[in-house]
Amino acid sequence: MSNYIDKDTSNDGIDRRGFLKCMAWAGAGMVWAMKGGILTARGFAADAATTSESDFSFVQVSDSHIGFHKGVYTDVVGTFQSAVSRINALPVSPSLVLHTGDLSHLSKPAEFDTVAQVMKSINTQQSFFVPGEHDYFVDNGNRYLERFGKGTVGTGYQSFDYKGVHFIGLVNVANISNGQTALGVLGNEQLEWMEKDVAGLGSSTPIVVFAHVPLWTIYEQWGWGTQDAARALGYLKRFGSVSVLNGHIHQILQKVEGNITFHTARSTAFPQPAPGTAESPGPMKNIAADKLRSYLGLTRVDYVEHSGMLATTDSTLADAAPATQL
Amino acid sequence: MKAAARVSTLYLIVFNIITINFSTARASSAPSTQPASQAAVTVKIENFAFLPKELDITAGTTVTWQNADDVPHTATSKDNPQVFDSGPLDTDDRFSFTFSKPGKYAYYCKVHPHMTGVVVVK
């Protein structure tokens, strides 16, 4: 079966065969490679080649919810550490680690201290954070910003460059606390900052945006989207390669729109139901303890400079160790 | 024996008087127009919803929110200035607020803003 799109009827960079093939990988770990609007999906067997060809890789972890302790989810520190062990077992250490929010469950100092300790144990050059609503609603993000806000502006947003890739960390949980919308909000101040931030960049610069709440509306009834995301994405339309990495919904969902690839990561703490499949978006119930780790995971992204290609690999904590799989 | 029995009866009477005084003091602090049975109601927070979503009460009623979910929620007034804010309510945590003035009090959960409710005070 071809790894390339052969019937792109809606001109959105994805075909039915490719979609179904990608879905088959879901839950078992998958590789998404992106070049322009073209997606290819491969299994873990092809992963080693990607690793050796890539100029650098980074890892996304999300929704560690340190402090949560209910049902089968009694060891969120342990599952977070398992994710770290998987990162540290990679044949090539990731250059960067991004945590896409909900570091803590209730913004307690001890919870943040644990997150900082676990993140420190990762073999990487630097870690970057954006807050989730659990890091923000208790005290308007004060404790979070004290510990993880270094180098950020405003409510905790930031940008930086690494080997030609421009990273933008956005905060869409600070303004939801006004009760005017159920969705995430970036806000005018941050959007103006973002417009200026990308203004001087050449259109061939690969862009990676990371934020907690998805920047595309997945399920409005549960607040799974960002009210003013369209304005932010508008600033990115001229770029050839844009990857948007989110957390919040504790499951993998992907979408391609023009040159923008959207991707949500698994949580390291607990899974949430697929949109609309349960009465509420609360932690999934009736998950057997021995199956829990197949619902938790992390995401690795490889970047190949000469082709401007980003490949996203999701793996669960239940998958065989990366060293034996690659 | 007789003297000892008389002494303990006396203690019992004294104890009773104190008890009565206590309950009188408590009753007088509650609004005199409200029957005790209607002065307190509970809003349950379950499955990411406030139950009941709309609550009709009379002025002076104390509303207690109780979180029956396994994730934290808040009951936070939408008014500006804010009338009440429970702060984080973890599982089984409660928050009480007494509504003394008539009005319509819209509120929501700060963690999950799609959760909304309203208290109508007459």
Topology:
The complex is a heterodimer of chains A (326) and B (122).
Chain A: H1 16-25, E1 30-35, E2 38-42, H2 47-53, E3 56-61, H3 76-88, E4 96-99, H4 109-120, E5 126-129, H5 142-148, E6 158-162, E7 165-169, H6 188-199, E8 207-210, H7 229-234, E9 242-246, E10 254-257, E11 260-264, E12 297-304, E13 309-316, H8 322-325
Helix pairs in contact in A: 3-4
Chain B: H1 2-29, E1 40-46, E2 49-51, E3 54-57, E4 61-67, E5 76-77, E6 94-99, E7 103-108, E8 116-121
Explain this structure:
The complex is a heterodimer of chains A (326) and B (122). By secondary structure, chain A is an alpha/beta fold. Chain A is built from 8 helices and 13 strands. The longest helix of chain A is centred in the N-terminal third of the chain and has 13 residues, at 76-88. Chain B folds into 2 domains: 1-30; 36-121, Sandwich (Immunoglobulin-like). In chain B, the strands form 2 sheets. A 4-stranded mixed beta sheet of chain B has the order 2-1-4-6, with no helix packed on it. Chain B has a 4-stranded mixed beta sheet with strand order 3-8-7-5, with no helix packed on it. In chain B, strand 7 and strand 8 form a beta hairpin. Chain B is globular, with a radius of gyration of 21 Å. In chain B, 26% of the residues are buried.
* Fraction of residues in helix of chain B: 10-25%
CATH class of the largest domain in chain B: Mainly Beta
- Briefly note the CATH topology name of chain A: Purple Acid Phosphatase, chain A, domain 2
Number of strands of chain B: 8
> What do the pLDDT scores of chain A average to?
83
Query: By CATH's scheme, which homologous superfamily of chain A applies?
Result: Metallo-dependent phosphatases
**Radius of gyration of CA atoms of chain A, rounded to a whole number:** 18 Å
Residue runs with pLDDT of under 50 for 5 or more positions of chain B? 1-37
What is the count of helical runs of chain B?
Answer: 1
Largest sheet of chain A: 7 strands, mixed
